[in-house]
Target: Metal ABC transporter substrate-binding protein
Amino acid sequence: MLNISKTNTQDRGLEAVGEHERQGSYFYPLVFLVCASLRWRYICQNACLVILLPIALFACTGSNSSNSRADDKPQVVATSTIIADLAEEVGGDEIQLTGILQPGTDPHVYEPRPQDSRFLEEADLILYNGYNLEPGLIKLMNAAGTKARKLAVGEVAKPLQLDKGKGEVVPDPHVWGDVKNAIAMVNAIRDGLIKLSPEDKAEFTQNAQQLTTELQQLDSWITQQIQTIPPNKRKLVTTHDAFQYYGRAYRIPIAGTLIGISTEEQPSAQTVKQLVESIKKIGVSAIFAETTINPNLIQTVAQEAGVKLAPRQLYSDSIGAAESEGDTYSKMMAANTRSIVEALGGKYTPFPAETQKK
Model:
C-alpha cells in the first residue's frame, strides 16, 4: 500500500511538474512580450521627450522674444497724475508709461509702496514735478538703485514763493495752475522723450504740438471766463495754498486758504478763526473745497463765516478719476474754471475743445 501510494504520489508529482512546464511554455513568452512592450513604451516616451522638448523650448523662446519685443518700448515712470497725463499725450504708443500716483491721491502725503521701488529701478526715464511736491517719492527715487534719467518737469517753470511761517520761504510746487507753465512742461517732456528715443522724434514732436495748441486755447478761454465774474466778487478762498499760479495768471486774487502749501499741515483753532474773520471782512460769496482733502474743516469755516460752500470741489493736486469731468489736465482746468465762475457769479460758457471731445 505504501509503495503504491508512493508511486502514485511520484506520478502525481511528475504530472504536476509536467503541467508546470507546459504552463511555463506559455508564461515565459508572455512575460517576454510584456517586458518587450514596456521597454518599447519606455523608448517611445523618451523619443517623444527628445522630439518634443526642443519644440517646447523653441515655443517658450519665441514667446519670450515676443515679450521682449513688447518691452522694447522705453520705460517711462511719472510720479504725479498731472505729469502722467501730459506724458501720455506726448508719448502716445511709443512709450510704456507707468504712473505711480492714482487719480485723487495727494502727492504731499503719499507713502510709497514696495512696488514703487521696482517701477523706479526698471525705468529708463523718471518724470517728477519737483519743488518738493512729492517728498516721499523724491526721497525714494534718490535712494533707489536706478540708472534712469530724472527730469523735474515742474522746475522748468519759474517758481512763485510761499511763506511757510517762521521766516521759511519755499518754492510753490503747484506750477500747472498757470496753463502757460503746463505748456513749458509739455515741451520739457517732449525733449526728454526725444533724448530717450530719438527714432520717435517725429511722433513726440507732433503729439506735443497738438497738445500745445489745445492748451493755448484753454489758457485764453480761462482768462475770458474769469473776466465774467464781477470784480467785487473776484476773490478765491480754498482749502490749501495750491492756486497761487492760477490766481496770478488769470487775475483772481487768493483771498485766503485754510492751510498752507502742504496738505499735511493741520490748521489750529486760531487759524480757522482768523480765516472766518477774513472771509466776513472781504465779503466773498463762496469758498471752495478740494477733491484731495477732507472737506469737513472748510465746511465748518463756511458755516461760521455765513457763506456758501461751492457745490463743485476744485481739483488741486491730482486729476480726477476715469470718466469724471476732470480726468485729464485740460478737463481738470476747465472744470475748475467752471466751478469758480458759476459759484462767484460769472457767466460760464463751455470750453470749445472740451465740447468737441464729447
The longest helix spans residues 2-70. Confidence is low (pLDDT under 50) at residues 1-70.
